Amino acid sequence: MHPFTLERPRDVATAMMLGARGAPATEYIAGGTDMLPLLKDEVLRPERLVAVGAGVLDDRIELGRDGTLRIGAAARMTDVADHEGVGETFPLIAQALLAGASPQVRNMATLGGNLLQRTRCGYFRDVGVVACNKRRPGSGCAAMDGDNRMHAVLGGSDQCIATHASDVAVALVALDARLRLRSLDGERIVALEAFHRVPGDAPQVETVLAPGELIAAIEVPAGAALARRSHYLKVRDRVSFEFALVSAAVALDVEDGRIRMARVAMGGVGTKPWRMPRVEQALAGARCDGTAYRAAAERATDGAVPRGRNGFKLDLMVRTLVRALEIAGGQA
Question: Hey, what long-range contacts does 83-88 have (CB within 8 A, 24 or more apart)?
Fold first, then answer.
């Protein structure tokens, strides 16, 4: 492991200052469930780590009277998944968290860190592979003609087709979540859907965060009619502790057997959590039945570009989404 200095700031202002002044040789660490493997494998070689867990960042989970959910970035995944208000009002979030990792990881991992986790692309995480534009800009992408079964069919470029690994990010995107970002210049609010960047010609730049800027909190707007009739479905090679081949987060507002509004996002298929506006448009006004679900789900693959071994994902996307809609639409 590359040697580094560990800083333990007592407040968020100091943490932001350390990050702003030390970029790009400084990294933040909270629960460490993603950072530590990256350090051990020397995928990342920072000169300094800045600890920003509970005590520096907020870890509270608050459900407002208006139905808005606010989650501090340092809140543990387990605490969010087990929170009574989250489970009752936003079950989609709890389902995605429970599908996302082992209990041991959930006990350590923070929600902010989960949103910032790096791709599980094997070429990115193997420093013996030279061609990885995300790790070594300009070196190429070994996944293009290599083992790309797990890779993205949406949002890729000729520079990178690595998928984003977070489950809960998919659910939060479907629920129109937004992030409160803090820096020395103040606070700004960014929609989670716009937070992660597609690779384009700069795959090493994964989010809109500026140096020294931190996720302070995640906010989910009120929308009980949508959130309660929802489901997160994850398809993977094995039942536990495995990343998604395809996942679907759906939330429906249904009245008299007809869909008034739908929110749909998918994971395991995009270079970031992927919102499906064309599917949502196709569902709006449709009846809750298999024919409508299938017709809408067919739009999920619009713009998809399969490569080599991941072409099976196109059919799997449609079938996964239809099943998730059937489950959500069938709820009382």
Answer: 85/61, 86/61
Residue that is written with structure tokens 């070594």 in the block: 136
CA distances from 276 to 214, 296, 316 (A): 27, 10, 15
Question: Token pair for residue 197?
Answer: 């960047």
The CATH number of whichever domain residue 92 belongs to comes to 3.30.465.10
Helix%, strand%, coil% for the chain, nearest 5: 35, 25, 45
Task: Supply the CATH number for residue 300's domain.
Answer: 3.30.390.50
Q: Three-state SS for 328?
A: helix
Cα 144–chain centre separation: 23
Compute the distance between CA of residue 205 and CA of residue 210 in angstroms, rounded to an integer. 10
Q: Rounded to two decimals, what is the model's pTM?
A: 0.96
Average pLDDT by stretches of 10, the chain with 332 residues: 93 94 87 96 96 93 94 98 94 95 94 97 97 97 97 98 97 97 97 98 97 96 81 93 94 94 97 98 96 97 96 98 95 57
In terms of Cα–Cα distance, which of 281, 320, 294, 276 is closest to 154? 276
Give the neighbor-by-neighbor strand order of the sheet with 274-275.
Answer: 230-235, 246-255, 258-267, 274-275
Structural domain of 266: 226-329
Q: What does the block give as tokens for 213? A: 């800027």
Please indicate, yes or no, whether residues 175 and 299 belong to a single structural domain of this protein: no
Number of domains forming the structure of the chain: 3
CA-nearest of 264, 268, 265 to 246 is 268
